[in-house]
Amino acid sequence: MNFQKAAFKAAYGVSSQLPPADRPEIVFSGRSNVGKSSLINRLCQRKSLARVSATPGKTATINFYTVDDVHFVDLPGYGYARVGQAERRRWDELINGYFAKAKGRGMALLVQLLDSRHAPSADDVQMLEYLRYHDLPFLAALTKADKLNKSERQQAAERFAALLEPYGCRQVLQTSAEKGDGIEALRSAIEAALPAEEGA
Questions:
Q1: What CATH number is associated with residue 153?
Q2: Mean pLDDT score of the chain, rounded to an integer?
């Protein structure tokens, strides 16, 4: 899979706008400001494929990127308190609308981003419960691993592995969009989750 062959496709604000799936989808989920855009950019070796916002909660759409013969699907960041109730309901409808059709859409894998420096938030746990309930295939990418020293990284790896195992997490990877830690391992995991012809 050529991760550098990447382009923004479209952004969708309500689930009825979502296009029919015509290829496998790799989904990225995480709370606001966890580093989804930065990780997608690093995976594709592009500086501004996904827009990195300094304002948490700015991404209010599901953003689709064409990456080789696959779609990367970037879900809106959750857990940002300064969002009105009407906007929060729209986000919920959008995300639930996507997941209601996720398996039928050919979702190959969900990458759940979690900040390696902190315990999962209540919103993170709610997302993990959702993934377990719907039996959706996912791995965890622990972001900002470069902010931890060697012993802290080891402790975080063990802590998250134990915490995530009951939710059906397939793999826990420590990543850094800034330094590149774990990026090759994440690319390999994505390729392994794809049907043979796309992952080749």
A1: 3.40.50.300
A2: 90
Say if CB 114 and CB 140 are below 8 A apart. yes
Residue 131 token pair: 């993934």
**137 burial via Cβ count (<10 Å: 0-12, 13-18, 19+):** middle
Q: Using DSSP, state whether 134 is helix, strand or coil.
A: coil
**Does 57 map to a domain?**
yes
Share of the chain above pLDDT 90, in %: 70
Domain membership of residue 40 as a residue range: 6-199
What total number of domains does the chain contain?
1
**Does 1 map to a domain?**
no
Nearest in space to 124 (alpha carbons), one of 161, 85, 77: 77
pLDDT, tens only, 5-21? 999 999 998 889 998 89
Output the pTM of the full model.
Answer: 0.91
CB 140 within 8 A of CB 168: no
Q: Does residue 134 sit within a domain? A: yes
In a domain, 158, yes or no: yes
CA pair distance 90, 111, nearest whole angstrom: 22
Dist. CA 181–CA 71, nearest whole Å = 23
CA 174, CA 172: separation in Å to the nearest integer? Answer: 7
